[in-house]
Amino acid sequence: xxEDRKLVICVGSGGVGKTTxxxxxxxxxxxxxxxxxxxxxxxxxxxxNSLGLDALGNEEKEIPKEKxxxxxxxxxxxxxxxxxxxxxxxDELIARVSPDEATKDRxxxxxxxxxISDTLSASHDYMASEKLYDLHECGRYDLVVLDTPPMxxxxxxLEASGRLSxxxxxxxxxxxxxxxxxxxxxxxxxxxQAPGAIVYKLLGNVFGTDFLDEIADFFLAMxxxxxxxxxxxxxxxxxxxxxxxxRFVVVCTPRSTSMEEARYFHRQLVERRMPGGIFIVNQxxxxxxxxxxxxxxxxxxPDRLWLHAQLDDQAEPPQVVAFVEKLESHFDRSVAMACDxxxxxxxxxxxxxxxxxxxEVPRLPDDVYDFDGLLKIDEKLFGKNKSNTSNLAxxxx
Length: 397
Ligand SMILES: Nc1ncnc2c1ncn2[C@@H]1O[C@H](COP(=O)(O)OP(=O)(O)OP(=O)(O)O)[C@@H](O)[C@H]1O
Ligand SMILES: [Mg+2]
Prior knowledge:
Rossmann fold, binds adenosine-5'-triphosphate, binds magnesium ion
């Protein structure tokens, strides 16, 4: 995944750790010598904070190599990060598929376009798929890691690339444009003779004929863009299905709803022949064992004595006992949760089968908000940072 993929896409339900995982994968690949860009859509700018950047924009920003050395690791490649700006991405898309400047200006200046693009660019998944295609094509990076937004409907992203070209389906555009085929002169007003004439008359009465002109103009201009949209949608969809280049990583937690969504997403990938097969179960509870492998469920006698000594000045022995009992019951709850997590992971392993790979990342004591935290995640995912052995690198099919 790290060594020869071009595109890694982290998907999963809300709050499971997609952004964290995407950043950690990016860091690992950059350390391994690749030129990496991590694209995030997280409006909370968590990735920016994690990477020590003040702000991320639609432009990629490089994370200085010193950042790595500060933490005792080396970046042999390079790491860039960016936050997806959906409106700019959409405008860029129009510019790219427009056959000429005049068409581009006509679309970008059209009020209906601005309206539609406001709505469409709010669909982050669509814009994300466009952006990652551009970044892949631009040649500046060996690997694009995409963090995706939490999805209401997990399959949205997989279907996103064709959304606009489907909307601009010939029959729909044709319906609007039928009366215009003989040129632009009659546009707008001639819509009034279209099959939906009554509707348009009504619209015209309410909104005025300028509005109808705008609509007709929009569809006329879009018609010229249709071929561009289609071939792009095909290219994006092909890239997402390319087993040599792309890998989807399904991130989840051991909680049951998250696991269910992960399975659902996996099935969707299989159905679409998209390259998945990696699950990262994040925030796994672990029940403590000391380094010597002792069960930490109950405080050992020396610990008890130590604790006693700490509290001796302020606390009466019964208070110490109560405190120890509280600690132990808290620990029991953690153990129970950790056992649930274990069962959930075993279940996922059974579901995934031998073709897939399930990696685990424990829940760290603190939130992951800085570079150090991301390196810790890396260590759990890929083994020791400073050696070549890694958990996921074995996955070079
Ligand atoms: N292994 C971990 N241990 C401890 N905290 C973690 C771990 N992984 C993620 N977190 C924390 O959990 C929170 C959610 O993580 P993250 O933002 O990566 O999730 P997300 O899937 O991108 O969320 P969203 O769906 O909102 O975009 C963050 O505060 C992050 O620091
Ligand atoms: Mg996120």
